[in-house]
Amino acid sequence: MSGLLAALHLFTSGCTSVTTTVSTHESPTPEHIVRLFSNVAAEPPEETRSMAAQRHMQTLPAVGRDDLLAAIKGPRSGAVACERSATADANPLDEIERLAQETRLVIVNEAHDRPSHREFIRQIAARLNDVGYSVFAAETFGPRIGASPSEPFARVNDGYYSNEPVFGNLIRSVKGLGYELRAYEYRGPYDDSKGQWERANAREEGQADNLMQVLSQMQDHERLLVHVGYSHASEVPIPSFEGKTLRWMAARLKAKSGIDPLTIDNTGCLSNSMNPELSQASHRHEQGQFDVVVGHPDVQFASGRPTYRLIDGHQLVDLPDALLNDDKRVIVEVRRYDEPYDAVPVDRLLLRPGESLPLVLPDGKFRVSNYEEGADRYKEIAVFIKDGRIL
User: Fold this and answer.
1) Cα–Cα distances in Å, from 264 out to 81, 168, 176, 234, 354?
2) pLDDT tens track for 92-136
3) With a threshold of 0.85, does the pTM exceed it?
4) Main-chain phi, psi angles of 155, to 5 degrees
5) Which of 50, 94, 200, 278 has a beta carbon 3.0–4.6 Å from 85's, enabling a disulfide?
6) Cβ neighbours of 26 (radius 10 Å)
7) What is d(CA 311, CA 301) in angstroms, rounded to the nearest whole number?
8) What are the structural domains, with CATH classification, of the chain?
């Protein structure tokens, strides 16, 4: 790897001019960066049902573009307006913590294009750790997820959805709390000659069997928090693929283990306030599908970045002009200065030609890397952030 160093004057909003060294490195583009560029189309999809469109929409938040996702019109499997629960004035975290003490198994879902759900699950995990939950299993985790428990960070190949800054922060948080991380996804074999319902049926059964193995390896006093997508948390059979009813993972795990789980839905309802709140089930929920339904507000933005990320000392920081590009798309990744290049970044942004958006960062020292689409090179600077300013 070679480096060409150039001293450039960089300017940030609210900051005086500072001299920062930018290095340019000739190196093959990391595979995860290539995948991110490939998944996000240069133009928004005209329809939202195809696999390519679904990949595009699910990847936008992973590259910091919740704003572009919010602008997409058309049918999506999104949340709907729901009636407030009779206990809606209560903090949903308080209710979840209370109910979680009545079982040793909690299953909570996310929409894969809503990292705000991951932030809420991070808060759930912190609350449940206080009442004895110590094992965290996630649908997205790959087999090596527990290989390096002493590392405070996640790595980009730990899982598909976990290669996203908010999910990375969730993993950082649960590791810091002492959770043991476990994978449970069913890896096959699948019979490609079977239809979608048959393949889904095999997957749900395999996931439940794998979680039974996780439970069998736990001590009686240990409690398990399972992070899933969408309907995998359903406790009852629901209409599904090919017009058939499907028993999803949670229903199977309940039957196999004899444990009545606390199931939490984050995906079906919109909040009637600016905060997550307890909701009644919607017309789209089956009776008994979930124990707790949490409505979430629409994503709000400040300078193009989602405000749900502006917590725990995270703040908007202007991106240095030297890392912008007027001709090509770029992906900017920010990592803590002492963490490796395959650590899940603290922030990531895909920028179109001539575009600029602020980063979302806490105070500290970071490496900011800029990858230009189609070019086997990247630019990098080291920055120290204090109170939203590059010093």
Assistant:
1) 17, 21, 23, 9, 42
2) 999 999 999 999 999 999 999 999 999 999 999 999 999 999 999
3) yes
4) -110, 155
5) 278
6) 12
7) 13
8) 2-74+308-390 (no CATH), 80-295 (3.40.50.11550)
